[in-house]
Design a protein that fits this description.
mainly alpha, transmembrane, 0% strand, 1 helix
């Protein structure tokens, strides 16, 4: 039972790490796009 719980926690941990990493990547792409759209294209993104 203990091993089952530890494996579940490991999988949950890795899932959270991947979600956090993908979120940082998304932010790293969205913010420069917003700056580019605002100052180069002259209009902000309407989200």
């Amino acid at each position: 039972m203990k091993n089952l719980l530890l494996r579940f926690n490991d999988k949950l941990y890795m899932t959270c790490i991947w979600v956090a990493g993908l979120s940082v990547l998304a932010i790293a792409l969205i913010i420069p796009w917003g700056v580019f759209a605002r100052y180069v294209l002259g209009t902000g993104s309407s989200w």
